[in-house]
Amino acid sequence: MDFDPADVVAALAPHLGSERAAKLDAVAGARLGGVIAVLEDLRDPHNMSAALRSCEAMGVLGVHVIAVRHRYRTATRITQGCEKWLTIERHAETRACADLLHSRGVQILAAVPGASRRLGEIDAGQKIALCFGNEHLGLSPELRRLSDGDFTIPMHGCSQSLNVSVSVAVALHAVTEARRRALGRAGDLDEAALLALRARYYARDLRGAEAIVARFCAARKHG
Predict the structure, then answer these.
(1) Does residue 169 contact residue 54 with C-beta atoms inside 8 Å?
(2) What CATH number is given to the structural domain containing 40?
(3) How many CB atoms lie within 10 A of CB 24?
(4) Is 186 buried (19+), middle (13-18) or exposed (0-12) by CB count in 10 A?
(5) What is the pTM of this model?
(6) Structural domain of 169
(7) Count of the separate structural domains present in the chain
(8) For FRET with 75, which of 6, 88, 141, 181 sits at 20 to 30 Å CA-CA?
(9) Do residues 83 and 121 both lie within one domain?
């Protein structure tokens, strides 16, 4: 939608109603751009969908999907539309994803069983991408090589492994909460990015949003 975000918010807010607009504002305000999930070659669409839903529920905004051996697939029954609240970037090559994240000043950490750094030791004050790999093979050697470090989720039971979607949920919960504590606020988007996200959420939540905004802008121009 090619309109000024402030115009989108002003035009759509009355159509959403105060309660729904306040809900979307709260969700946008709690989004974290500094904690990113990278999902590499997940094979099972149910696992991909559950992972995406966990990302959205924890307030993560950006998800990078690497599809080299297995194509990106989701199960609508599980995602329940969570994709529209996320920024999902897809990559056909592992290096392309890593290079893009590094160019944005993001530290890449690979989830590796038995790594020396424990989940709770991650510095959430900086921009971080947590990488999770294929259900059976784990992360590719290439992504591990391109990462800036690794981490492990400590386990204290007889079971010493988790389903990948569960690992995503556990790790993101820990790191997103740590980031919020470090920042002292729910979200980390600056004012301009937050306004743009509110506009995007309003537009995605309302049928016919583009036409409504167009009429609003035209009426103001000729009013």
Answers:
(1) yes
(2) 3.40.1280.10
(3) 22
(4) middle
(5) 0.94
(6) 32-188
(7) 2
(8) 141
(9) yes
